[in-house]
Request: fold
Amino acid sequence: MTATDSFLMSDQPLPSIFPIVDTHTHFDAPLFDSDRELQAQEAYENGVHHLALVGYLYRHFDRLYDTQQALDDLSQSVTTENSDQLNLYPRAHIALGLHPFYIEQHTEAHLLAMAQMLTKQRPLAIGEIGLDTYTDAMKQPENFAKQQRFFSAQLDMAVNHQLPVMLHIRKAHAQALALLKAHDYDAHKLGGIAHSFSGGVQEAKAFVKLGFKLGVTGQVTNPNAKKLRYAIQAAVADYGIGCLVIETDCPDMTPTMCQTLDNSSSVSEPSALGSAALESSVPRHRSHDEWGDRPAHNRNVPANLPWVLLTLSELLTVPPAELARQLWQNSCNALQTTWQYPK
Reply:
């Protein structure tokens, strides 16, 4: 029995709290509107000092900024009321991107508007962007050509603004790698994350070789995710633990020990956004609320991120304190930031 199994069975709290970065969330989703302040505070109490709010549809870009401002206001209200009190909420950062799964909804005008937004207010990163051929419709030549065009255009923006990218790649690893190799985007210089990595050993090593970090979600806590676990171990064996970052991808990818429903066959039930690591799950494509039927009591939340850290610690036989510090530095490297590790 592993340590994470014992905590799951005994329903114990986390054994220790370490500073961590949630490199990929959809914490702006309406699913969090009723208790976002509480969830943000619990995330901070569980060690999450920074989180990324990641875009996928142009019409939701304003929602990202509204959520960031709301969290900033909470932090300011705390420090204003008591200047001696430490911040109680994570710092939120924004990534802007047009997600490949929603390619039919994206327009050239959205690309232009996104480019204009980048010049006015610099985001943390470009994302999530990439290629996705999960459904038959997305494999159609016209749709896939449009995906490639939008992917390349957003890589151009990243180069122009010297920003890292967050990749969404599903059932299109070979095509994405080929496009990245042909493009002048250099992840060794600009950083970047292969978000919710779902490939095998060769794909893992290929992305790391190009300079990307592998984004590890709650899927790694699933004992049946043998392909993913082996790919992570193989990448670390060749490149060291410097090739990884962690993320919740909330409200998707709930760690097994945090689930309250009988989802023994998978880690949560992913939406179209979070299904990259669960190739067997059927994605949902909603026009207005991408998580409309997700039970609120089984959604993933940023406070669950430590379980990904602890599972990786066991998988890689690296002490959690050492791993947490390295993952923090990896996140800074991937996102081209200089966040100081909390003492």
About this structure: The first strand starts at residue 20 and ends at 25. The chain has a mean pLDDT of 88.
